[in-house]
Amino acid sequence: MKAALYERYGPAAEVIRVEEVERPDPGPGEVLVRIELSGVNPTDWKSRSGATPRPIDGFQIPHHDGAGVIDAVGDGVDASRVGQRVWLLMAAGGRRWGTAAQWTVVPSRQAVPLPDGASAALGASLGVPAVTAHRCLFADGPVEGKAVLVAGGAGAVGHFAIELAKFYGARVVTTVSGPAKAELARRAGADQVVNYRDPDAADQLRAFAPQMDRIVELALGANLELDLAVSGPQTHIVDYAAELADPVLPVRKCMNANVTLRFILLYGVPAEAVEQAVTDITRALAAGALTELPLTRFPLDQVAAAQDAVEAGAVGKVVVEIP
């Protein structure tokens, strides 16, 4: 099969190449998936660059997320799954077979049925962003009736955090940096959108809710002052991304707010929490509550450019088309 791969860490253009490799066979409990679209996330370029290195088993085919059709199943998997449309989760997590290839093998539970009404583009966009969003929202209990602040509502995690929070009964305000991103956040269903650069951003947030119940955060250092302005004893600030420089924590201000800080890295989320995320995401998908982000598409032979686009902060979702 044709696959993108790398054998060492470094710049995308220097280490990623596309070549023919032997197609894998599904082992016990696994499925073989013919990939249509491979979704690219920041964790993919960080692993490849060596910023967050992970062991390489000879070679690494990148990308955790994707959408395709089950082609074959291993022992212990219901044969009726052959031909099923699926979205994939954490395909390259501790394995060499990511989704930037014509086929991949994953444990059966990581190939999730994709409803007929959901496009492959939406399926390839879920995975890491949607499960991360779910964990940020629900790690500390239900969100029905809660006030939720989503930082960066135009990003992939922010997009699905808005949609999942709304579907499960929360009121949602989000912060963005400008009009184009504000429009994306509104399309996702945010009740209010605030430009965090506005001098009165904190007042706008307090007008929405004097105290947030959940804050889904991607830049803790940059945004903590604004977060604390709308935090109190019931607030859980949940951070899912690391900045280049670690923030200095204003301990007394955090104590005064009696705020709870939680940090999330998807690789370490408990299995039962991931399973619950998949169940809840599937329910939202079936109801038509999750939508596509604007897509930037690259062919497989330009996978290095696709990763560079994500690293550069491409708005929307970057996907690789698999021939």
Label this structure with key terms.
single chain; 323 residues; alpha/beta; Quinone Oxidoreductase, Chain A, domain 1; Rossmann fold; 2 domains; seven-stranded mixed beta sheet; 11 helices; globular
Topology of this protein?
Blueprint: E1 2-5, H1 12-15, E2 17-20, E3 30-40, H2 42-49, E4 65-73, E5 85-88, E6 103-107, E7 111-113, H3 120-125, H4 127-138, E8 147-151, H5 156-167, E9 171-176, H6 179-188, E10 192-195, H7 201-208, E11 214-217, H8 220-228, E12 236-239, H9 251-257, E13 260-263, H10 271-286, E14 295-299, H11 303-311, E15 317-321
Parallel strand pairs: 8-9, 8-11, 9-10, 11-12, 12-13, 14-15
Antiparallel strand pairs: 1-2, 3-4, 3-6, 3-15, 4-5, 5-7
Helix pairs in contact: 2-11, 4-5, 4-10
Using the alpha-carbon principal axes, give the shape.
globular
Work out the oligomeric state of the chains in this entry. Answer: single chain
How many β-strand runs? 15
- The ordered string of helix (H) and strand (E) elements is EHEEHEEEEHHEHEHEHEHEHEHEHE
Based on secondary structure, the structural category is alpha/beta
Specify the helix fraction band.
25-40%
Q: How many helices?
A: 11
CATH superfamily of the largest domain: Medium-chain alcohol dehydrogenases, catalytic domain
CATH top level of the largest domain is Alpha Beta
- Please report the distance between the alpha carbons of the first and last residues: 10 Å
Radius of gyration: 20 Å
The fraction of residues assigned to DSSP E strands is 15-25%
Mean pLDDT: 97
Describe this protein's structure.
The protein is an alpha/beta fold and 323 residues long. The protein has two domains: 2-126 and 292-321, Quinone Oxidoreductase, Chain A, domain 1; 129-267, Rossmann fold. Helix content is 31%, strand content 24%. It has eleven helices and 15 strands. It has helices at 12-15, 42-49, 120-125, 127-138, 156-167, 179-188, 201-208, 220-228, 251-257, 271-286, 303-311, and strands at 2-5, 17-20, 30-40, 65-73, 85-88, 103-107, 111-113, 147-151, 171-176, 192-195, 214-217, 236-239, 260-263, 295-299, 317-321. The strands form three sheets. Strands 3, 4, 5, 6, 7, 14 and 15 form a seven-stranded mixed β-sheet that branches. The longest helix is centred in the last third of the chain and has 16 residues, at 271-286. The relative contact order is 0.16.
